[in-house]
Amino acid sequence: VQLQASGGGLVQAGGSLRLSCAVSGRTVSGYRMGWFRQAPGKEREFVAGIWWSSGITDYAESVKGRFTISRDNAKRLVYLQMNSLKPEDTAVYYCGAGPYGSEYRYWGQGTEVTVSS
Question: Which is nearest to 79 in space by CA: 21, 2, 5?
Fold first, then answer.
């Protein structure tokens, strides 16, 4: 599985961005897809996840109500719609994929999001 994240950039607080993760390689129908982020000097943290087949989602408390994860089966894309962005959302965002019952195993290269106050 190969993943390629895009869509990052510089945005003012309160603004929006949509990240995309292009999925290629083997089928991911039994996989969980996720977005993670890593801010400078901090550990990588979970942001949002979605089961490819069912579409069931879950979110970190810090982004609930502001971020939405979704996927497009036909285009093999995973999105992260980020609204009401805050300076503390500044980080490099990574998409990840992992088969059922396993940890996230595959990672994209990351896309940088900077939220100015």
Answer: 21
